[in-house]
UniProtKB/TrEMBL annotation:
SUPFAM superfamilies: NAD(P)-binding Rossmann-fold domains. Gene3D superfamilies: NAD(P)-binding Rossmann-like Domain, UDP-galactose 4-epimerase, domain 1. CDD domains: GDP_MD_SDR_e. It comes from the Bacteria. This is GDP-mannose 4,6-dehydratase. It comes from Brevibacillus choshinensis. Residues 4-308 form the NAD(P)-binding domain.
Length: 328
């Protein structure tokens, strides 16, 4: 069986590739855009076929689908950082929507018989009133940033291509995910990196933060990518599924969890530049539909996830120190 992952060098993409390669029964092909990100993964993807492909270019995507003829497509490639979408809304909308459109059009015109998973997001729900939690798939969308709007468009485009052309599409709405290799712009990774730098004496003992009162539903990325696989194994085409832990904590509690694993004392400072013009206050998901259809449940605890993330940054910083020493 051949699986194509768009955005294989990204956070979820690289973990999904690792999972599929470890199964031994899947040939993995992946698209990437940034060679730098790929290099940082070392030999992790050495058994995958890697294709440098700009998804907003229809001709390139057509060639990719024609040449690879995948049985499964995991469509993960996206601009997924909320503040970037606020600064560059057009870029986010074009990348996320046109990239997917090109992929669906290629599958439709080439008549490739494949199952497609579309990575949508809990950000689509946006503003949620406390009495509307836990969030079900039927909750209203009240998006608070262009990234959320782009994900609603991707979600509905997937629905429409299933309804209009019978494409075998399953949509997943993942809630916040984290774990080793999370890009440092996201909150868990950003705080973990700052703590690891402080431990090494490379940052003064001050952790800079934004809005600590936001509430998020965290799942480890390794559980999320297993869910993506299950979504194509047992998900119903045309359906949409929330993927979430079903528990939530404040960002402040998340920071305290990381600090409880650190061997330093720090002061916490709010950095005004980290505050957003509008932030989603509360995210708590109901993934009972997905669990009942696939049997999925998270296996990695939040504590473990934070431990692994902190150790990941400790490792990166050690490597950088060694590399710096080599040069000296
Ligand atoms: C499901 C969804 O999940 C993610 O979206 P996000 O929730 O915006 O992720 P984040 O890690 O940037 O922020 C989480 C919360 O943490 C607050 N916060 C406080 N202090 C800092 C801070 O210093 N940095 C950041 N980044 N956030 C901070 C921030 O204001 C927000 O309330 C993406 O994967 C997205 O692609 C996606 O689909």
């Amino acid at each position: 069986m051949k699986a194509l992952i768009t955005g294989i060098s990204g956070f979820a993409g690289s973990h999904l590739a690792e999972y599929l390669l470890s199964r031994g029964d899947v040939e993995v092909i992946g698209t990437f855009r940034s060679p730098g990100r790929l290099e940082s993964l070392g030999t992790l993807l050495q058994n995958a076929q890697l294709v440098n492909c700009e998804l907003t270019d229809a001709e390139s995507v057509n060639r990719l689908i024609r040449q690879t003829q995948p049985d499964l497509i995991f469509h993960l490639a996206a601009q997924s950082f909320v503040p970037t979408s606020l600064h560059s809304p057009a870029d986010t909308l074009v990348n996320n929507l046109v990239g997917q459109l090109n992929m669906l059009e290629a599958v439709r015109h080439l008549e490739v018989d494949c199952k497609i998973q579309i990575a949508c997001s809990s950000e689509e729900y946006g503003m949620v009133y406390p009495n509307e939690t836990p969030i079900k798939e039927s909750n209203p969308f009240r998006p608070l940033n262009p990234y959320a709007v782009s994900k609603i468009a991707q979600d509905f485009l997937g629905y429409q291509y299933h309804q209009s052309y019978g494409l075998n599409i399953v949509r997943t709405r993942a809630f916040h995910h984290t774990g080793p290799r999370r890009e440092e712009c996201y909150v868990t990774s950003n705080f973990a990196k700052q703590i690891a730098l402080i431990e090494e004496g490379l940052q003064s003992p001050n952790v800079y933060v934004g809005n600590l009162s936001a509430i998020r539903d965290f799942t480890d990325v390794r559980d999320i990518v297993r869910a993506y696989w299950l979504s194509l194994e047992s998900g119903v085409p045309g359906e949409v599924y929330n993927i979430s832990s079903g528990t939530s904590i404040t960002i402040e509690e998340m920071l305290q969890t990381l600090l409880s694993k650190a061997n330093v004392h720090v002061d916490i400072h709010v950095d005004q530049k980290r505050l957003r013009p509008s932030d989603v206050d509360i995210v708590l998901g109901d993934s009972s539909l997905f669990r009942s259809v696939t049997g999925w449940a998270p296996e990695i605890s939040f504590e473990q996830s934070m431990e692994d993330l902190l150790n990941y940054w400790r490792g990166v910083i050690q490597q950088q120190k060694l590399a710096g020493g080599d040069r000296g």
